[in-house]
Amino acid sequence: MAISKVSALGIHHESFSFHMVLRPVGISASEGKSLRKFPVISALDWRTVVIGLAADSGCGKSTFMRRLTSVFGGVAGPPKGGNPDSNTLISDTTTVICLDDYHSLDRHGRKENGITALDPRANNFDLMYEQVKSLKEGVSVVKPVYNHVTGRIESPELIEPPKILVIEGLHPMYDPRVRELLDFSIYLDISSDVKFEWKSQVSLSLSLPSLSLSLSLSLSRSLLLWLLVWQRDMAERGHSLESIKASIAARKPDFDTYIDPQKQHADAVIEVLPTQLILDDNEGKILRVRMVMKEGVKYFDPVYLFDEGSTISWIPCGRKLTCSYPGIKLFYGPDTYYSSEVSVVEIDGEFEKLEELIYVESHLNNISTKFYGEITQQMLRHADYLGSNNGTGLFQTVIGLKIRDLFEQIQAEAASKQAITSPK
Amino acid sequence: MAISKVSALGIHHESFSFHMVLRPVGISASEGKSLRKFPVISALDWRTVVIGLAADSGCGKSTFMRRLTSVFGGVAGPPKGGNPDSNTLISDTTTVICLDDYHSLDRHGRKENGITALDPRANNFDLMYEQVKSLKEGVSVVKPVYNHVTGRIESPELIEPPKILVIEGLHPMYDPRVRELLDFSIYLDISSDVKFEWKSQVSLSLSLPSLSLSLSLSLSRSLLLWLLVWQRDMAERGHSLESIKASIAARKPDFDTYIDPQKQHADAVIEVLPTQLILDDNEGKILRVRMVMKEGVKYFDPVYLFDEGSTISWIPCGRKLTCSYPGIKLFYGPDTYYSSEVSVVEIDGEFEKLEELIYVESHLNNISTKFYGEITQQMLRHADYLGSNNGTGLFQTVIGLKIRDLFEQIQAEAASKQAITSPK
């Protein structure tokens, strides 16, 4: 990485001329290379860390992103004065870009070619690669914006290299070149069981005259999230139950072919499953959430419970902590995941009170907190966020802390290298 | 407790005249009070702590006793120059007396009355109470000796008050007066499943021409212990398989009526069960051993694993520790036992190597060791004792440490009381 002088502004930009190349289906990758590349001028006093976050639901992981940016102390919002339909979230330290912005075919184009947005042919991986690489090298880019309401590709926006760049969407680990750029990758895996339960509830809700927020009282928070995401996704096609069903069915083969296999490349997978605390649970309200962490990943020490490397199940509710039915159960142990050695931490059930949360946190190790109770503090600060009472919120927060830790390790290493190569 | 001057010898004895009263079946308890009581002259610089150890197999718990005395640093042996058939074991700190010595009916008498040794009517609880009480008050007693070979009550022996008095046998917690004298009580509970497995193996062994020690190579060590105890018990009646079966059948009702119910009074119960690591195990070689510890017992803090009051299962074999099949599994959790609140620690499986033992020890809490690895050191010192590779040996050692701790707490409390009542 070339290091030049740091300007007063901290970042050098040359020009913003941008050639948006929307390749038709089947265009060769070499043609994509005609894309203008910005000169490499890195004047940052940090090395941009790139995180990939993959999941089915497009770019609906805003809670995860808000938890992540909160760990760094900033508040995330859309780019100032930019495209009002921007999918980007920017905070002091973190920029989250939505990979839907790299659709090479708009909705019309996809319909014409009979392919879904999950199909790699509807996405421009050359541009994705070029721009993520540029940002990682400290160079700003001008990125297209996909408007989820109109389904069209709109006027582009400037993205400056942040300290932490999160690329979230359907394909962050699909292209080997993009994957290679990732310092850390996460796959959010909502099990088909949970999806199905939620889907049934969504169908029920949609049959009501209006989809009001008061539903949140009777539905689980997770369901509500799902519902709102679906509502947004379905806005394009109308709300009918039939169209939802059709859409789900249509997505399944592409999902299995292009999205799901990415999880084998993830450094961490968060699995959302039905609870095992209630026999034959079919409400789907209580979740069992597993964090699968790859071993041997640089800058990443997997979280463990009590005794590293052993297998443990733990029901913290007992004499010192009392929980209501069905309580909480944790599990920790080594496993293999797509022939990789992994460690798994699992939380089944919900936290009802602060005591339960801090008690669980105090027995987790390698969580990269800076002070005792930092996870609990983060969870309380955002108690209104979805999943704050279960493993989804806790593991999202843990991932945030691990990314902060990884960022700091990378900066420290870069600083020590620089000190060696350029002595005073 | 009256405290008089401590003589150079440490103990005052008055006289050894002894009236052995063997009451026939049905004699009233009040008549038993005619027994001579030694005057209370306590000149000891300690308060004798009394431990009760109950189990089915009479006084065959010598391994347990040797582990216990080893914790205190002494070597146990029969009283010097006493009855060669004495059942007593004496070390520097500990005296173990066998409650069979309080049989009021000898073998002939029992046969005549058609009752077993398990029947309370064959035992003199008045004398047991008087003598245990005297010893606890620092007064020596002259105690009868039951000869297990001849089945007769023989010339008595002198028992001086030790620091720790262990009364072991069939009925240490049967009589409420004796029970009240106990500072701590343990019930050794060998499950009928394990007994049955062992019994079958014993039958097999006994059908062989000779019962040699070389059998120990093919049989488990626990089985060998059982075999030797049975061999001794059966010596009286001949070795035939039929007589063993008959004896087992004959004991069962009395065992269930008089022995088994004592466990509800025990402060700690050690349960020996078949392994659950091997599906449908029917070899009975690998044991699952549980230590059930009553909550709220003075001077006794139950052992726990990782997190006091919660429920945990732990398989230590993993990345840091590798174990052969079927490995080791531990469990810890709160429970109720005969409507008492208890904590349970369970070890299923065997230790193959020192690393496994020290690893397990290092994760047990409240074990009352004086230095890191004391349990492992004790277990290694007596690696040739039965059960050194499984939970029986480990829990026996733990109980030894807990008794040492209890002894020291009681002495400290007695010393502080004395300091208050008799200032210089």
TrEMBL record, chains A, B:
Q: Where is the Phosphoribulokinase/uridine kinase domain?
A: 50-199, 231-278
Q: Which reaction does it catalyse?
A: D-ribulose 5-phosphate + ATP = D-ribulose 1,5-bisphosphate + ADP + H(+)
Enzyme Commission no: 2.7.1.19
A Gene Ontology biological process in which this protein takes part is: reductive pentose-phosphate cycle
Which CDD domains does its entry note?
PRK
Q: Which UniProt keywords apply?
A: ATP-binding, Calvin cycle, Kinase, Nucleotide-binding, Photosynthesis, Transferase
Determine the domain of life of the protein's source: Eukaryota
User: Per the database entry, which stretches of residues form a coiled coil?
Assistant: none
Descriptive protein name: Phosphoribulokinase, chloroplastic
- Which species is the source of this protein? Tetracentron sinense
